[in-house]
Amino acid sequence: MRNFNSILVANRGEIAVRVIKSAKSLGYRTIAVYSEADAAALHVRMADEAVLIGPAPVQQSYLDMAKILAAAKEAGAEAIHPGYGFLSENAEFARACEAAGIVFIGPSAEAIDLMGNKAAAKRRMIAAKVPCVPGYEDPDQSDDTLINAAKEIGFPIMVKAAAGGGGRGMRLVHEEKNLAGALASARSEALNAFGSEELILEKAIIEPRHVEVQVFADSHGNVIHLGERDCSVQRRHQKVVEEAPCPVMTPELREKMGAAAVEAARSINYRGAGTVEFLLDAGNNFYFLEMNTRLQVEHPVTELVTGIDLVSLQIKVAQGEPLGMAQKDVALQGHAIEVRLYAEDTTQDFLPCTGRISRWQAAEGEGIRFDVGIDAGQEISPFYDPMIAKVIAYGESREIARHRLIEALKNTVLFGLTTNRGFLIDILNEETFARGEATTAFIGELFDENRLAAKVPSDAEMAMAAVLFYQVERDKAASSALFASDQLMDWSSGGDLLTRYVFAAGDGKTDVTVSPRREGGYKVMVGDTPLVVDVMGRSENKAQLTVDGNRRRVHYDVPSEGVLELTDDGKTLRFANEIAVPLSAAGAAGSGQVIAPMHGTLLDVFVKAGDTVEVGTRLAVLEAMKMQHDILAEVSGVVQNVIATAASQVSVDDLLFEIEASE
Predict the structure, then answer these.
(1) How many angstroms separate the CA atoms of 180 and 47, rounded?
(2) 8 A C-beta contact, residue 490 and residue 520
(3) In the beta sheet, which residues pair with residue 161?
(4) Same domain (yes/no): 292, 360
(5) Which of 320, 336, 421, 658 has the smallest C-beta neighbourhood within 10 Å, fewest atoms?
């Protein structure tokens, strides 16, 4: 037994909150760590104690092992839970914890080392007779060797970073002529993300399902699995939607995959929570992909269908206790689906977004669970992953869970930040997903640029926005007036009151006028279209209206003068009254001025003054929210000025380059 009474959570955001909740429920003293950017974060406020560990950049805070261990010593922490990401799969950190006499709530450093390298892991799995994808995982990393191995395996080929995951350092190559370039770019991304250039090759299994099995092992030789999760809905190899159980799973297939996952864990003397990931083809053949030696982002769906608190079980096993259950004790009931809510703009190639959350209220309902680390007023910085929350729904059937999740997303109040909420609702409503037929090709096949393009607000939405604008401004004026009578609101002795707004709509602008009606409600002209809007009820951020007799329930917010955000049926629209609000710096796009799309670090700059560029020329690479983004020229011409410098920090809308456009 390795008894401990206090746990430091070496992480941030929703997973830190999640771990703290379970640890506190078991009676442990909890310690949070935080960077300067997270001083007011939810996980800091929840913990019994919190220790500042450095500036915002992760290399100087959450990834600095010495600072984490110093914080543990300062707070008297006897155990460390790493969450996921950051140091959770760092074998050196696990060793350092043990050397400091601190219990690492996770597997042994040896298991992390072995499974953290895809090449070594695959060799071990082949030896353990776990089905594996044909590929190349040997030490020789020369281009010639890799190219020859690819020819032998046969195209299409997946190039993967041996030391990483999350889609970074991963390239799908269909033809030999594109392989050399893919190897170079994968190496660069892998080195930057994981500190290793090592690559492996695998035969690409086209349009498979991504199915993973949750395993658990104790230090007494007991190993079990807790069923599977389907994580097939992905974008660029990053999971978007996860569910348990897998929609096409059969008892026989579950038994085979579960046995393979248990054998994988047993073969490396595993301890704690782990996930063995497989690719499942249309013929129900499955192949080992990798093993994650930590808690997964998507662990809540397993908790909901098994009734087992995985974090509590991690702590129990780390204390040296046996699992307390056998495989026959594990039963899956009902269905659970999880979506990842990201701060990103799906209309701009999923560009991560920063900003301040002006309003936040999670929806409530039967079977609904939110795992969050955010709060109203919180700034979402460029230094961390753009995932801000996980929304999970449970139901007696998959269809009940799906409907509950859609409604939860629609009824959640979230303003001040661009998110992928509408995209998630579209996924859940898509027939292919509803039928349980989604594979890893699902998003790429069904969500093209046209479908992801910004939605043009309807006449009804512009009318509702204008009326809400009008009432908010009217109430603000009334609150500062002396002797204003409620009975005289919206009344004029000089004829109809006309209030004009100008909203952007698609490529143009639309004039909208609001005029109170003597019989109640408002006459709204959207261009040449007349509509009647009645406000049935309105609170600070919710309203019930009728538009030409059709009832609508919306959420809204006015984050700044002349700006109103409206969520209607899960779709969030931003209305800027262009009479009152000047054009933003975004108006520089296409003018030859190249500005930073977000806060971040410029990793490299590829042009200098005097260079000739074409539309689409790669000017620089910006790293933000753990991803790399190419900065491209939007006009053809000659570079006049280079303000950008490699390795420098930039803020959103900073000027990076000036290009004199050619005629």
Answers:
(1) 49
(2) no
(3) 199
(4) yes
(5) 320
What is the CA angle 53-54-60, rounded to 5? Answer: 110
CB neighbourhood size of 639 (10 A):
21
- The tens digit of pLDDT for each residue in 246-280 reads 999 999 999 999 999 999 999 999 999 999 999 99
Helix or strand (DSSP H, E) at 8: strand 6-9
Here the CATH number for the domain that contains residue 43 is 3.40.50.20
- Give pLDDT tens digits for 348-395: 889 899 889 999 999 999 999 999 999 999 999 888 989 999 999 999
Domain annotation covers residue 572? yes
Q: Cα 157 to the chain's mean position, in Å?
A: 27
CA distance linking residue 119 with residue 129, whole number of Å: 15
Q: Give the pairing type, strands 29-35 and 49-54.
A: parallel
State whether 224 and 371 are in the same domain: yes
Residues 563, 609 within the same domain: no
Q: Could you tell me the end-to-end alpha-carbon distance of the chain, in angstroms, rounded to an integer?
A: 76
Residue 345 sits in the same domain as residue 384: yes
Q: Which domain holds residue 353?
A: 209-452
Q: How many residues does the chain have?
A: 663
DSSP 185-225: HHHHHHHHHHS---EEEEE--SS-EEEEEEEEE-TTS-EEE
Q: Domain end: 543, 576, 609, which one?
A: 576
Q: Which residue has the higher pLDDT, 471 or 597?
A: 471
CA dist., res. 481 & res. 132, Å (int)? 74
- 484 domain residue, yes or no: no
φ, ψ dihedrals at 26, nearest 5°: -90, 0
E runs forming strands in 489-548: 499-505, 508-516, 522-526, 529-538, 542-547
CB atoms within 10 A of CB 152: 10
Residue 521, classed as helix, strand or coil, is: coil
Q: Retrieve residue 121's tokens.
A: 């892991």
Which of 198, 170, 193 is closest to 182 using CA atoms?
170
Q: HSE (CB half, 13 Å, CA atoms) of 268?
A: 34
Q: Is the peptide bond before 245 cis (omega within 30 degrees of 0)?
A: yes
Q: What is the DSSP letter of 85?
A: S
Whether residue 196 lies inside any domain: the answer is: yes
Contact call for residues 380 and 417 (beta carbons, < 8 A): yes
Q: How many domains does the chain have?
A: 5
The verdict on 277 and 419 lying in the same domain is yes
